[in-house]
Amino acid sequence: MTPILSVQGLRKDYGNGQGCFDIDFELFAGEVLCIVGESGSGKSTLLATLAGKLAADDGSVVFRDKNERAHELTRLAEAERRRLARSEWGYVTQHARDGLRMNVSAGANVSERLMALGERHYGRLRAAAADWLEKVEIGADRLDDKPCAFSGGMQQRLQIARNLVTRPRLVFMDEPTGGLDVSVQARFLDLTRRLVHDNRIAVIMVTHDLGVARLLAQRTLVMQGGRVVEAGLTDQILDDPQHPYTQLLVSSILQA
Amino acid sequence: MTEPFSPPSANLDDRWRYNFGFLDENTKRMLRRALLKAVAVPGYQVPFGSREMPLPYGWGTGGIQLTAAVIGHEDVLKVIDQGADDTTNAVNIRRFFARVAGVATTTVTRDATLIQTRHRIPETPLAEGQIMVFQVPEPEPLRTLEASEVETRKLHAHQEYGLMHVKLYEDIARYGHIATSYDYPVMVNRRYLASPSPIPKFDNPKLHRSPALMLFGAGREKRLYAIPPYTEVESLAFEDHPFEAQHWSQACALCGSSDSYLDEIIADDAGVRQFVCSDTDHCRQQREAAQ
Q1: Which of A102, A125, A142 is the best residue to mutate to test the B interface, defined by the most B CB atoms within 10 Å of its own CB?
Q2: Span A230-248, average pLDDT
Protein backbone atom coordinates (compact mmCIF):
# COMPACT_ATOMS: atom_id res chain seq x y z
CA MET A 1 0.00 0.00 0.00
CA THR A 2 1.39 3.41 -0.93
CA PRO A 3 0.83 6.34 1.40
CA ILE A 4 -1.17 9.28 0.07
CA LEU A 5 1.19 11.67 1.81
CA SER A 6 4.86 11.09 2.58
CA VAL A 7 6.81 13.75 4.40
CA GLN A 8 10.58 13.63 4.63
CA GLY A 9 12.92 15.99 6.42
CA LEU A 10 10.42 18.84 6.25
CA ARG A 11 11.70 22.10 7.71
CA LYS A 12 10.10 25.50 8.10
CA ASP A 13 12.40 27.85 9.99
CA TYR A 14 11.20 31.27 11.11
CA GLY A 15 14.81 32.06 11.95
CA ASN A 16 14.44 32.55 15.70
CA GLY A 17 14.40 28.92 16.70
CA GLN A 18 10.68 28.79 15.97
CA GLY A 19 9.12 26.67 13.24
CA CYS A 20 9.20 22.94 12.61
CA PHE A 21 12.24 20.79 11.90
CA ASP A 22 13.10 17.29 10.60
CA ILE A 23 9.52 16.15 10.21
CA ASP A 24 9.09 12.65 8.77
CA PHE A 25 5.83 10.73 8.54
CA GLU A 26 3.51 8.93 6.18
CA LEU A 27 -0.25 9.05 5.93
CA PHE A 28 -2.46 6.42 4.31
CA ALA A 29 -5.87 6.73 2.67
CA GLY A 30 -8.68 6.95 5.20
CA GLU A 31 -6.32 7.38 8.11
CA VAL A 32 -6.74 9.99 10.86
CA LEU A 33 -3.50 11.43 12.19
CA CYS A 34 -3.43 13.81 15.14
CA ILE A 35 -0.59 16.23 15.82
CA VAL A 36 -0.59 17.16 19.50
CA GLY A 37 1.61 19.58 21.37
CA GLU A 38 1.55 22.71 23.44
CA SER A 39 1.08 26.20 22.01
CA GLY A 40 4.17 27.26 20.08
CA SER A 41 5.33 23.70 19.45
CA GLY A 42 5.12 24.21 15.68
CA LYS A 43 2.08 22.03 15.00
CA SER A 44 0.06 24.70 13.19
CA THR A 45 3.16 25.73 11.25
CA LEU A 46 3.57 22.12 10.17
CA LEU A 47 -0.06 21.92 9.05
CA ALA A 48 0.13 25.20 7.12
CA THR A 49 3.36 24.07 5.46
CA LEU A 50 1.84 20.74 4.44
CA ALA A 51 -1.21 22.51 3.01
CA GLY A 52 1.04 24.86 1.03
CA LYS A 53 -0.04 27.98 2.90
CA LEU A 54 3.58 28.44 3.99
CA ALA A 55 6.63 27.72 1.84
CA ALA A 56 8.86 24.94 3.20
CA ASP A 57 12.58 25.69 3.63
CA ASP A 58 13.72 22.13 3.09
CA GLY A 59 12.52 18.56 2.73
CA SER A 60 9.92 16.89 0.57
CA VAL A 61 6.18 16.30 0.74
CA VAL A 62 4.75 13.87 -1.81
CA PHE A 63 1.00 13.70 -2.28
CA ARG A 64 -0.78 11.04 -4.36
CA ASP A 65 -4.06 12.18 -5.92
CA LYS A 66 -7.16 10.13 -6.79
CA ASN A 67 -5.49 8.95 -9.99
CA GLU A 68 -2.40 7.79 -8.06
CA ARG A 69 -0.37 10.60 -9.58
CA ALA A 70 2.40 11.80 -7.26
CA HIS A 71 2.89 15.54 -6.67
CA GLU A 72 5.95 17.00 -4.93
CA LEU A 73 4.17 19.73 -2.97
CA THR A 74 7.22 21.77 -2.04
CA ARG A 75 7.95 22.40 -5.73
CA LEU A 76 4.42 22.58 -7.05
CA ALA A 77 3.35 25.53 -9.20
CA GLU A 78 0.74 27.68 -7.54
CA ALA A 79 -1.95 26.94 -10.13
CA GLU A 80 -1.57 23.21 -9.58
CA ARG A 81 -1.51 23.60 -5.81
CA ARG A 82 -4.74 25.59 -5.89
CA ARG A 83 -6.32 22.96 -8.12
CA LEU A 84 -5.40 20.25 -5.62
CA ALA A 85 -6.62 22.41 -2.74
CA ARG A 86 -10.09 22.69 -4.21
CA SER A 87 -10.46 19.19 -5.64
CA GLU A 88 -8.41 16.87 -3.40
CA TRP A 89 -8.08 18.68 -0.09
CA GLY A 90 -10.16 20.36 2.55
CA TYR A 91 -9.10 22.79 5.26
CA VAL A 92 -11.10 23.21 8.46
CA THR A 93 -10.00 26.15 10.57
CA GLN A 94 -10.29 26.76 14.30
CA HIS A 95 -12.35 29.89 13.80
CA ALA A 96 -15.34 29.37 11.55
CA ARG A 97 -14.99 32.99 10.38
CA ASP A 98 -11.73 32.08 8.66
CA GLY A 99 -13.17 29.03 6.93
CA LEU A 100 -16.67 30.16 6.00
CA ARG A 101 -18.12 33.02 4.01
CA MET A 102 -20.12 34.71 6.72
CA ASN A 103 -22.09 36.99 4.39
CA VAL A 104 -23.62 34.30 2.18
CA SER A 105 -26.08 31.55 3.09
CA ALA A 106 -25.18 28.10 4.41
CA GLY A 107 -26.28 26.59 1.10
CA ALA A 108 -23.92 28.84 -0.86
CA ASN A 109 -21.11 28.00 1.56
CA VAL A 110 -21.57 24.29 1.01
CA SER A 111 -21.98 24.48 -2.76
CA GLU A 112 -19.11 26.93 -3.37
CA ARG A 113 -16.57 24.16 -3.92
CA LEU A 114 -18.89 22.41 -6.37
CA MET A 115 -19.21 25.66 -8.31
CA ALA A 116 -15.43 26.05 -8.21
CA LEU A 117 -15.20 22.63 -9.86
CA GLY A 118 -17.57 23.74 -12.61
CA GLU A 119 -21.05 22.63 -11.50
CA ARG A 120 -23.49 25.11 -13.09
CA HIS A 121 -26.88 23.57 -12.32
CA TYR A 122 -28.69 25.37 -9.50
CA GLY A 123 -31.07 22.51 -8.71
CA ARG A 124 -28.27 19.99 -8.32
CA LEU A 125 -26.18 22.42 -6.25
CA ARG A 126 -29.05 23.02 -3.90
CA ALA A 127 -29.83 19.31 -3.55
CA ALA A 128 -26.19 18.57 -2.73
CA ALA A 129 -26.10 21.38 -0.17
CA ALA A 130 -29.31 20.17 1.53
CA ASP A 131 -27.98 16.60 1.54
CA TRP A 132 -24.74 17.64 3.22
CA LEU A 133 -26.46 19.83 5.77
CA GLU A 134 -28.47 16.77 6.81
CA LYS A 135 -25.27 14.75 7.00
CA VAL A 136 -23.76 17.20 9.47
CA GLU A 137 -27.00 17.29 11.45
CA ILE A 138 -28.13 20.77 10.43
CA GLY A 139 -31.76 20.87 9.32
CA ALA A 140 -32.32 21.52 5.60
CA ASP A 141 -34.62 24.37 6.69
CA ARG A 142 -31.47 26.30 7.66
CA LEU A 143 -30.19 26.16 4.05
CA ASP A 144 -30.83 29.85 3.40
CA ASP A 145 -29.66 31.13 6.80
CA LYS A 146 -26.32 32.85 7.07
CA PRO A 147 -23.61 31.20 9.19
CA CYS A 148 -23.61 34.16 11.58
CA ALA A 149 -27.05 32.96 12.72
CA PHE A 150 -25.54 29.56 13.64
CA SER A 151 -24.08 28.45 16.97
CA GLY A 152 -20.35 27.77 17.24
CA GLY A 153 -20.85 24.01 16.97
CA MET A 154 -23.08 24.36 13.93
CA GLN A 155 -20.56 26.65 12.25
CA GLN A 156 -17.86 24.00 12.68
CA ARG A 157 -20.17 21.32 11.31
CA LEU A 158 -20.97 23.62 8.38
CA GLN A 159 -17.23 23.89 7.72
CA ILE A 160 -17.08 20.10 7.61
CA ALA A 161 -19.94 19.97 5.10
CA ARG A 162 -18.37 22.73 2.99
CA ASN A 163 -15.11 20.79 2.81
CA LEU A 164 -16.42 17.27 2.40
CA VAL A 165 -18.99 18.07 -0.29
CA THR A 166 -16.42 17.41 -3.03
CA ARG A 167 -15.24 14.22 -1.26
CA PRO A 168 -11.61 15.23 -0.91
CA ARG A 169 -8.89 12.67 -0.24
CA LEU A 170 -7.26 14.62 2.54
CA VAL A 171 -8.62 17.14 5.02
CA PHE A 172 -6.46 19.39 7.18
CA MET A 173 -8.02 20.43 10.47
CA ASP A 174 -6.48 23.09 12.68
CA GLU A 175 -7.88 22.75 16.21
CA PRO A 176 -11.46 22.47 14.95
CA THR A 177 -12.79 21.89 18.47
CA GLY A 178 -10.81 24.74 20.01
CA GLY A 179 -13.70 27.07 20.75
CA LEU A 180 -16.38 24.48 21.54
CA ASP A 181 -17.64 23.36 24.92
CA VAL A 182 -17.25 19.72 25.93
CA SER A 183 -20.62 18.30 24.89
CA VAL A 184 -20.61 20.14 21.56
CA GLN A 185 -17.03 18.94 21.03
CA ALA A 186 -18.07 15.33 21.58
CA ARG A 187 -20.87 15.61 19.04
CA PHE A 188 -18.57 17.25 16.52
CA LEU A 189 -15.88 14.58 16.96
CA ASP A 190 -18.40 11.77 16.71
CA LEU A 191 -19.79 13.18 13.49
CA THR A 192 -16.35 13.82 12.03
CA ARG A 193 -15.26 10.27 12.82
CA ARG A 194 -18.33 8.82 11.10
CA LEU A 195 -18.05 11.01 7.98
CA VAL A 196 -14.33 10.49 7.39
CA HIS A 197 -14.76 6.76 7.95
CA ASP A 198 -17.74 6.45 5.60
CA ASN A 199 -16.06 8.48 2.86
CA ARG A 200 -12.55 7.09 3.44
CA ILE A 201 -11.08 10.55 3.90
CA ALA A 202 -7.64 10.95 5.42
CA VAL A 203 -7.37 13.64 8.10
CA ILE A 204 -4.43 15.46 9.62
CA MET A 205 -5.73 17.19 12.73
CA VAL A 206 -3.82 19.59 14.91
CA THR A 207 -4.93 19.73 18.53
CA HIS A 208 -3.52 20.42 21.95
CA ASP A 209 -5.96 17.94 23.45
CA LEU A 210 -4.87 14.30 23.73
CA GLY A 211 -8.51 13.42 24.45
CA VAL A 212 -9.41 14.42 20.89
CA ALA A 213 -6.60 12.26 19.56
CA ARG A 214 -7.83 9.33 21.64
CA LEU A 215 -11.33 9.60 20.16
CA LEU A 216 -10.39 10.07 16.53
CA ALA A 217 -6.87 9.21 15.58
CA GLN A 218 -5.31 5.94 14.64
CA ARG A 219 -1.89 7.50 14.88
CA THR A 220 -0.50 10.47 16.76
CA LEU A 221 2.55 12.71 16.49
CA VAL A 222 3.63 14.52 19.65
CA MET A 223 5.49 17.77 19.00
CA GLN A 224 7.61 19.93 21.23
CA GLY A 225 9.88 22.83 20.28
CA GLY A 226 9.24 22.31 16.59
CA ARG A 227 10.25 18.65 16.56
CA VAL A 228 8.35 15.38 16.69
CA VAL A 229 9.33 13.86 20.04
CA GLU A 230 7.16 10.79 19.79
CA ALA A 231 5.12 9.14 17.04
CA GLY A 232 3.10 5.98 16.90
CA LEU A 233 -0.30 4.38 17.34
CA THR A 234 -2.51 6.56 19.51
CA ASP A 235 -3.32 3.75 21.94
CA GLN A 236 0.34 2.95 22.29
CA ILE A 237 1.24 6.55 23.04
CA LEU A 238 -1.53 6.86 25.57
CA ASP A 239 -0.79 3.56 27.31
CA ASP A 240 2.96 3.61 27.20
CA PRO A 241 4.37 7.09 26.65
CA GLN A 242 8.14 7.11 26.24
CA HIS A 243 9.15 10.75 26.05
CA PRO A 244 8.99 12.79 29.28
CA TYR A 245 6.85 15.44 27.58
CA THR A 246 4.36 12.82 26.36
CA GLN A 247 4.28 11.31 29.84
CA LEU A 248 3.44 14.73 31.22
CA LEU A 249 0.67 15.21 28.64
CA VAL A 250 -0.79 11.77 29.25
CA SER A 251 -0.69 12.09 33.02
CA SER A 252 -2.42 15.45 32.83
CA ILE A 253 -5.32 14.10 30.78
CA LEU A 254 -5.78 10.91 32.76
CA GLN A 255 -5.99 12.84 36.00
CA ALA A 256 -8.55 15.23 34.57
CA MET B 1 1.04 66.41 -31.54
CA THR B 2 1.93 68.67 -28.65
CA GLU B 3 0.90 72.23 -29.05
CA PRO B 4 3.71 74.49 -27.87
CA PHE B 5 3.25 76.03 -24.46
CA SER B 6 2.73 79.76 -24.81
CA PRO B 7 3.47 81.92 -21.81
CA PRO B 8 0.75 84.39 -20.80
CA SER B 9 1.08 87.75 -22.47
CA ALA B 10 -0.79 90.98 -22.78
CA ASN B 11 -2.12 89.89 -26.15
CA LEU B 12 -5.56 88.34 -25.60
CA ASP B 13 -5.30 86.17 -28.72
CA ASP B 14 -2.16 84.64 -27.31
CA ARG B 15 -3.75 83.51 -24.03
CA TRP B 16 -2.60 80.35 -22.29
CA ARG B 17 -4.68 77.33 -23.28
CA TYR B 18 -5.08 73.77 -22.07
CA ASN B 19 -3.34 71.07 -24.04
CA PHE B 20 -5.63 69.40 -26.59
CA GLY B 21 -8.00 67.15 -24.64
CA PHE B 22 -6.95 68.60 -21.25
CA LEU B 23 -4.38 65.90 -20.39
CA ASP B 24 -0.71 66.42 -21.18
CA GLU B 25 0.83 64.28 -23.91
CA ASN B 26 2.85 62.06 -21.56
CA THR B 27 -0.26 61.12 -19.62
CA LYS B 28 -2.10 60.37 -22.83
CA ARG B 29 0.77 58.17 -23.95
CA MET B 30 0.64 56.27 -20.65
CA LEU B 31 -3.10 55.79 -21.09
CA ARG B 32 -2.77 54.68 -24.71
CA ARG B 33 -0.15 52.09 -23.78
CA ALA B 34 -2.46 50.71 -21.09
CA LEU B 35 -5.35 50.75 -23.57
CA LEU B 36 -3.34 48.81 -26.16
CA LYS B 37 -2.64 46.17 -23.56
CA ALA B 38 -6.30 46.12 -22.57
CA VAL B 39 -7.38 45.59 -26.18
CA ALA B 40 -4.77 42.87 -26.60
CA VAL B 41 -6.06 41.00 -23.53
CA PRO B 42 -9.85 41.45 -23.66
CA GLY B 43 -11.43 41.82 -20.23
CA TYR B 44 -8.14 42.00 -18.33
CA GLN B 45 -7.93 44.89 -15.86
CA VAL B 46 -4.85 46.97 -16.66
CA PRO B 47 -3.58 49.27 -13.89
CA PHE B 48 -2.91 52.87 -14.92
CA GLY B 49 -1.82 56.06 -13.22
CA SER B 50 -5.13 57.80 -12.73
CA ARG B 51 -4.85 61.60 -12.75
CA GLU B 52 -6.57 64.29 -10.78
CA MET B 53 -9.39 65.54 -13.01
CA PRO B 54 -11.50 68.67 -12.68
CA LEU B 55 -14.40 66.64 -11.26
CA PRO B 56 -14.62 64.33 -8.24
CA TYR B 57 -13.89 60.61 -8.23
CA GLY B 58 -17.12 58.77 -8.88
CA TRP B 59 -18.34 61.31 -11.43
CA GLY B 60 -16.62 59.70 -14.36
CA THR B 61 -12.92 60.52 -13.98
CA GLY B 62 -11.97 57.15 -15.49
CA GLY B 63 -14.18 57.67 -18.51
CA ILE B 64 -12.99 61.25 -19.01
CA GLN B 65 -9.35 60.19 -18.97
CA LEU B 66 -9.95 57.46 -21.56
CA THR B 67 -11.91 59.87 -23.75
CA ALA B 68 -9.11 62.43 -23.44
CA ALA B 69 -6.56 59.78 -24.43
CA VAL B 70 -8.34 58.63 -27.59
CA ILE B 71 -10.11 61.80 -28.79
CA GLY B 72 -8.88 63.45 -32.00
CA HIS B 73 -9.69 66.62 -33.91
CA GLU B 74 -12.01 64.76 -36.29
CA ASP B 75 -14.01 63.04 -33.56
CA VAL B 76 -17.68 63.74 -32.88
CA LEU B 77 -18.46 63.26 -29.20
CA LYS B 78 -21.68 62.12 -27.55
CA VAL B 79 -22.03 61.84 -23.76
CA ILE B 80 -24.77 59.86 -22.06
CA ASP B 81 -25.73 59.76 -18.40
CA GLN B 82 -28.51 57.30 -17.48
CA GLY B 83 -29.33 57.12 -21.19
CA ALA B 84 -29.99 60.85 -21.43
CA ASP B 85 -27.98 63.53 -23.22
CA ASP B 86 -29.44 66.37 -21.17
CA THR B 87 -28.54 65.41 -17.60
CA THR B 88 -26.03 67.44 -15.60
CA ASN B 89 -23.13 65.02 -15.89
CA ALA B 90 -23.63 64.48 -19.62
CA VAL B 91 -23.97 68.18 -20.41
CA ASN B 92 -20.90 69.10 -18.37
CA ILE B 93 -18.61 66.43 -19.78
CA ARG B 94 -19.73 67.24 -23.33
CA ARG B 95 -19.08 70.95 -22.78
CA PHE B 96 -15.75 70.15 -21.13
CA PHE B 97 -14.46 68.39 -24.23
CA ALA B 98 -15.96 70.98 -26.57
CA ARG B 99 -13.88 73.53 -24.67
CA VAL B 100 -10.58 71.68 -24.10
CA ALA B 101 -10.49 69.78 -27.40
CA GLY B 102 -12.67 71.94 -29.62
CA VAL B 103 -14.32 68.87 -31.11
CA ALA B 104 -17.81 68.66 -32.53
CA THR B 105 -20.46 67.21 -30.23
CA THR B 106 -23.75 65.54 -30.97
CA THR B 107 -26.62 63.80 -29.26
CA VAL B 108 -27.34 61.53 -32.23
CA THR B 109 -25.82 58.09 -31.71
CA ARG B 110 -25.37 57.46 -35.42
CA ASP B 111 -23.34 60.65 -35.94
CA ALA B 112 -20.98 60.07 -33.01
CA THR B 113 -17.55 58.50 -33.39
CA LEU B 114 -16.85 58.54 -29.66
CA ILE B 115 -19.51 57.96 -27.01
CA GLN B 116 -18.78 58.35 -23.32
CA THR B 117 -21.45 56.71 -21.23
CA ARG B 118 -22.64 56.02 -17.74
CA HIS B 119 -25.30 53.32 -17.21
CA ARG B 120 -26.42 52.71 -20.79
CA ILE B 121 -25.50 51.48 -24.23
CA PRO B 122 -27.57 53.37 -26.85
CA GLU B 123 -30.57 51.60 -28.39
CA THR B 124 -29.36 52.53 -31.89
CA PRO B 125 -27.09 49.66 -32.94
CA LEU B 126 -23.43 50.65 -32.84
CA ALA B 127 -21.33 50.55 -35.98
CA GLU B 128 -17.76 49.72 -36.89
CA GLY B 129 -15.40 52.56 -36.09
CA GLN B 130 -17.38 53.83 -33.11
CA ILE B 131 -15.78 53.78 -29.67
CA MET B 132 -17.78 53.48 -26.45
CA VAL B 133 -16.13 54.74 -23.25
CA PHE B 134 -17.72 53.45 -20.02
CA GLN B 135 -17.37 55.09 -16.62
CA VAL B 136 -16.77 52.28 -14.12
CA PRO B 137 -17.16 52.68 -10.35
CA GLU B 138 -15.96 49.17 -9.39
CA PRO B 139 -14.02 47.26 -12.05
CA GLU B 140 -13.71 44.09 -9.95
CA PRO B 141 -16.84 41.90 -10.24
CA LEU B 142 -15.60 39.64 -7.42
CA ARG B 143 -15.06 42.50 -4.98
CA THR B 144 -18.30 42.10 -3.00
CA LEU B 145 -17.33 38.49 -2.22
CA GLU B 146 -13.56 38.79 -1.92
CA ALA B 147 -12.18 41.93 -0.32
CA SER B 148 -8.51 41.21 -1.01
CA GLU B 149 -7.09 42.60 -4.27
CA VAL B 150 -4.18 40.13 -4.05
CA GLU B 151 -6.67 37.27 -3.93
CA THR B 152 -8.96 38.53 -6.70
CA ARG B 153 -5.97 38.96 -8.99
CA LYS B 154 -5.00 35.36 -8.31
CA LEU B 155 -8.55 34.25 -9.02
CA HIS B 156 -8.35 35.99 -12.41
CA ALA B 157 -4.89 34.61 -13.10
CA HIS B 158 -5.96 31.03 -12.37
CA GLN B 159 -9.39 31.57 -13.93
CA GLU B 160 -11.10 30.47 -10.71
CA TYR B 161 -14.50 32.00 -11.19
CA GLY B 162 -16.72 29.68 -9.12
CA LEU B 163 -17.08 32.50 -6.61
CA MET B 164 -19.10 34.64 -9.01
CA HIS B 165 -21.71 31.90 -9.17
CA VAL B 166 -21.94 32.04 -5.37
CA LYS B 167 -23.44 35.50 -5.79
CA LEU B 168 -25.90 34.30 -8.44
CA TYR B 169 -26.75 31.31 -6.22
CA GLU B 170 -27.55 33.69 -3.37
CA ASP B 171 -29.82 35.68 -5.67
CA ILE B 172 -31.85 32.63 -6.64
CA ALA B 173 -31.94 31.30 -3.06
CA ARG B 174 -33.29 34.62 -1.82
CA TYR B 175 -35.47 35.88 -4.67
CA GLY B 176 -36.21 32.79 -6.75
CA HIS B 177 -34.46 34.24 -9.78
CA ILE B 178 -31.18 35.98 -10.59
CA ALA B 179 -32.08 39.38 -9.16
CA THR B 180 -28.86 41.13 -10.22
CA SER B 181 -30.25 43.66 -12.66
CA TYR B 182 -27.29 45.90 -13.38
CA ASP B 183 -23.52 45.41 -13.41
CA TYR B 184 -24.32 41.83 -14.40
CA PRO B 185 -21.04 39.88 -14.62
CA VAL B 186 -19.82 38.77 -18.05
CA MET B 187 -17.16 36.40 -19.34
CA VAL B 188 -15.11 38.13 -22.02
CA ASN B 189 -13.58 36.06 -24.81
CA ARG B 190 -14.12 32.90 -22.69
CA ARG B 191 -11.25 33.96 -20.45
CA TYR B 192 -11.67 36.99 -18.17
CA LEU B 193 -14.57 37.69 -15.88
CA ALA B 194 -15.44 41.39 -16.15
CA SER B 195 -17.88 43.95 -14.88
CA PRO B 196 -19.79 45.58 -17.74
CA SER B 197 -20.04 48.71 -15.49
CA PRO B 198 -23.47 49.52 -14.03
CA ILE B 199 -25.38 49.14 -17.29
CA PRO B 200 -28.70 47.31 -16.90
CA LYS B 201 -28.48 43.64 -17.85
CA PHE B 202 -30.87 44.64 -20.66
CA ASP B 203 -27.76 46.03 -22.39
CA ASN B 204 -25.54 42.99 -21.81
CA PRO B 205 -26.49 41.26 -25.09
CA LYS B 206 -25.37 44.42 -26.96
CA LEU B 207 -21.81 43.76 -25.78
CA HIS B 208 -21.68 40.38 -27.50
CA ARG B 209 -19.86 40.60 -30.83
CA SER B 210 -20.44 44.35 -30.99
CA PRO B 211 -18.79 45.99 -34.02
CA ALA B 212 -17.74 48.93 -31.81
CA LEU B 213 -14.71 49.09 -29.51
CA MET B 214 -15.67 49.15 -25.84
CA LEU B 215 -13.32 50.84 -23.37
CA PHE B 216 -13.87 50.82 -19.61
CA GLY B 217 -12.16 53.23 -17.20
CA ALA B 218 -12.28 53.29 -13.41
CA GLY B 219 -10.53 56.45 -12.21
CA ARG B 220 -10.73 55.92 -8.47
CA GLU B 221 -9.71 52.24 -8.73
CA LYS B 222 -7.03 53.06 -11.35
CA ARG B 223 -8.00 50.23 -13.69
CA LEU B 224 -9.01 50.11 -17.33
CA TYR B 225 -10.10 47.26 -19.56
CA ALA B 226 -11.52 46.73 -23.01
CA ILE B 227 -13.78 44.62 -25.16
CA PRO B 228 -12.49 44.80 -28.76
CA PRO B 229 -14.94 44.64 -31.69
CA TYR B 230 -16.61 41.30 -32.36
CA THR B 231 -15.47 39.76 -29.07
CA GLU B 232 -17.54 37.03 -27.51
CA VAL B 233 -19.21 38.28 -24.32
CA GLU B 234 -21.26 35.84 -22.29
CA SER B 235 -23.47 36.77 -19.33
CA LEU B 236 -23.02 34.26 -16.51
CA ALA B 237 -25.96 32.06 -15.50
CA PHE B 238 -26.95 28.61 -14.31
CA GLU B 239 -28.01 25.82 -16.65
CA ASP B 240 -31.47 25.76 -15.07
CA HIS B 241 -31.64 29.54 -14.58
CA PRO B 242 -30.48 31.02 -17.89
CA PHE B 243 -29.64 34.69 -18.40
CA GLU B 244 -32.69 36.84 -19.01
CA ALA B 245 -32.92 40.57 -19.74
CA GLN B 246 -35.65 42.80 -18.31
CA HIS B 247 -39.05 43.00 -20.01
CA TRP B 248 -41.82 45.57 -19.69
CA SER B 249 -45.51 44.99 -20.14
CA GLN B 250 -46.04 48.53 -21.49
CA ALA B 251 -44.48 50.62 -24.25
CA CYS B 252 -42.80 54.02 -23.89
CA ALA B 253 -45.44 56.65 -22.99
CA LEU B 254 -43.80 59.22 -25.29
CA CYS B 255 -42.74 57.36 -28.43
CA GLY B 256 -44.56 54.03 -28.14
CA SER B 257 -41.36 52.05 -28.49
CA SER B 258 -41.79 48.54 -27.09
CA ASP B 259 -38.24 47.24 -27.40
CA SER B 260 -36.23 49.86 -25.51
CA TYR B 261 -35.13 50.13 -21.89
CA LEU B 262 -37.79 52.04 -19.92
CA ASP B 263 -37.46 54.32 -16.88
CA GLU B 264 -40.30 54.73 -14.44
CA ILE B 265 -41.12 58.43 -14.02
CA ILE B 266 -43.42 60.13 -11.51
CA ALA B 267 -45.34 62.55 -13.71
CA ASP B 268 -47.18 64.79 -11.25
CA ASP B 269 -47.89 65.51 -7.59
CA ALA B 270 -50.70 62.94 -7.55
CA GLY B 271 -48.17 60.16 -8.06
CA VAL B 272 -49.13 59.31 -11.64
CA ARG B 273 -46.41 57.10 -13.05
CA GLN B 274 -45.36 56.53 -16.60
CA PHE B 275 -42.69 54.52 -18.35
CA VAL B 276 -40.52 56.34 -20.86
CA CYS B 277 -37.42 55.46 -22.87
CA SER B 278 -34.22 55.93 -20.93
CA ASP B 279 -32.39 56.63 -24.21
CA THR B 280 -33.55 60.19 -25.00
CA ASP B 281 -31.97 60.18 -28.47
CA HIS B 282 -33.77 56.95 -29.40
CA CYS B 283 -37.07 58.32 -28.06
CA ARG B 284 -36.75 61.54 -30.07
CA GLN B 285 -35.95 59.63 -33.26
CA GLN B 286 -38.95 57.36 -32.77
CA ARG B 287 -41.25 60.35 -32.31
CA GLU B 288 -39.82 62.16 -35.36
CA ALA B 289 -40.22 59.04 -37.45
CA ALA B 290 -43.84 58.73 -36.38
CA GLN B 291 -44.70 62.29 -37.46
Answers
A1: A125
A2: 92
